[in-house]
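Posting here for the record, re: nicotinamide-adenine-dinucleotide.
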Amino acid sequence: MTQTIAKSQIPASLQGAIHTQLFIDGKFVNAESGETMATLNPHDNSEIAQIAMAGHADIDKAIHAAQRAYPKWSRMSAMDRGRILLKLADLIEANAEQLAMLESLDTGHPIRDSRILDVPRTAVTYRYFGGMADKFQGDVVPVEAGFLNYVSREPLGVVGQVVPWNFPLMFTSWKMAPALAAGNCVVLKPAEITPLSSLRIAELMAEAGMPDGVVNILPGLGQVAGQYIAEHPEIAKIAFTGSTATGRRIVQASAGNLKKVQLELGGKGANIVFEDAFLPAAINGAAWAIFHNQGQACIAGARLVLHESIAEEFLEKFTALAKSIRLGNPLDPNTEMGPLTSQMHRDRVLSYVDIARQEGGEVLSGGKAPGGDLSAGCYVEPTIVRAKSTHDRIAQEEVFGPFVTVLTFKTDEEALAIANSTEYGLGAGLWTRNLQRAHLMAREIKSGMVWINCYKRVNPGSPFGGVGQSGYGREMGFDVMREYTQAKSVWVNIDAQIVPHYPRPAK
Ligand code: NAD
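Prediction output follows.
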């Protein structure tokens, strides 16, 4: 049975900002196949627009456009490349409200978050890497007398980038800004269910002066377009953010031409509260860690690990706070928590409530989809569940929703063992007033990022990425510039006295 999907009420401020075609070689074009897919408003599952879905022929076209643009772009002065990214940052700020609305409409992010986090962080990322372009430099190595050895950092060529739906605007900037600053050309595939903000960025890129072909944005299905980019022999590198299962497929697909791979995958962040923590801050921090963006964050504080002496007091206040969170239409400025981004994902998150019950877990709060006005959307109540053991599925598997698993501990050693007991290692938090304990735990936790008396801090200068099944490679800062370049070592004989020793000096 085909379901009719009502058209979304599109706010007037988005007139002209919704693009539905692929962006290839500086132009919006239809997919060769003519295929489209609806992008939905998760508030009520109404259709926003039909979006062109890229197939193999479109990706080939984009790669060839990028290859044509590459010689000029990679040889342009780094300062001029940076200038375009800096201009883009200004344009993002000039169009901030429109971009925030677009992101909230497509993803369900509360508009207040899109305004104060997603859009400003996106602008800051392009600005940071715009400034980085002419500051990332090579080296001169002090080698044997008579020789000069210099190492330049060269761009890779045409890079493929595949991003998920949880922070489409921000993650597109994390991927594209450093790649472009380093002199690469880009073929980027946004998630099929949230393509709108990246297509609008493509248009702003052109307005900022980006030459045609340098940036190509192709919405498409993961198994079709994403897989093809990962396999493509003319793509020099694939940078992927998404689930660990897809990450494994990307590694396999990349083997054909041994392309460079960078993976930002899943997580199951432990947020540990010790008995000496300043509780009001820890309670607020724990709510932010798991409920921001409806828990759809790889670094979410999905495991709340409490010292048993403070657990009851903490949970009483934390539960009251969770129950007071205002759920609602993401476009309403009073909304604190919006819907999940898709119905399928909502159902998956709710299935973990059943799993929790089967495992003997105790649902302390939430656990349902709200009714009334919100019943047509992808909403889930803020959910707090106490697990019986750290080995339970709800304490091991990524739920990726407003679902926090509570565990308790008696000793620091036990807290550390719990923190390190999953296959993931992306983000972790700890709350204590004991400095020595804080730094010792930070050293021992197997995780790419650790936050002490805070949670989920990110900055374009600070490396972001995971260990274990959370992936490899780092976004941000100088680390990511190394990910998007390769070293070339050049040797020069600068002393006429020195000649090759073999087979024997020439007469
Ligand atoms: P997903 O792996 O299903 O999809 C991510 C992207 O990959 C989408 O664009 C999708 O179309 C594409 N894709 C799907 N199959 C593909 C294939 N065979 N080949 C190439 N591309 C393919 O993940 P998701 O559900 O969209 O995102 C949620 C996941 O992303 C969570 O696991 C979350 O932890 C992770 N994530 C990680 C980070 C990080 O930085 N470590 C950040 C955000 C999200």
